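Quick question, first post here. What does this chain look like in 3D?
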Amino acid sequence: MTPGIDTMFVLNKSIGQGRKSGVYATLGINAGVLTHALIGALGLSVLIAKSAIAFTLIKYIGAVYLIYLGFIKLKTKKDLLANVSIDNKKPKAKNDFWTGFLTNTLNPKVALFFLAFFPQFINPEEIQNPVPFVLLGLTFAIIGIVWYISLTLLASMFYERIINNPNIGSRLNKCSGVVFILMGLKIGST
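> Answer (accepted):
Ran it through. Tokens below.
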């Protein structure tokens, strides 16, 4: 629930494109959480954490992706609702899902969180068993879905205001671009 990349992503989608985009972004982020849980259950996160090359590669891919998203937002001359097509349909929800999925999956800090935090809640005799890891991952994803859906419902209330005032949307677009770039730089520098 602490503010981070995923929180900023859900807020951006919810405020800028409405409730549906926020919900799909939430589902994508938590699909990424489940991916990390599966990777951890299979023991691959240990390999990634021990391999400086693999960890660094994933870290930089994630950082570059966030910086790319930020520059796209800064570069656009249109307002936050620029992705809305002429017939007033919102962008395809699958794009929000996949962007959320990639944002979470390519965040190496999430993998390290699963590697460092989850084993503390698993019986030492069961540490090689993937089932407790998967159950913790599912629990974490369910809590994440509840939190981000709540955040989406709250943030999407601002969507109507932004539709009626494009100047606010343009400013929010620029601000979210800067935030994504800063988060990408932070991930890349740690």
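Residues 181 and 189 are 12 Å apart (CA to CA).
Residues 81-88 have pLDDT under 50 and may be disordered.
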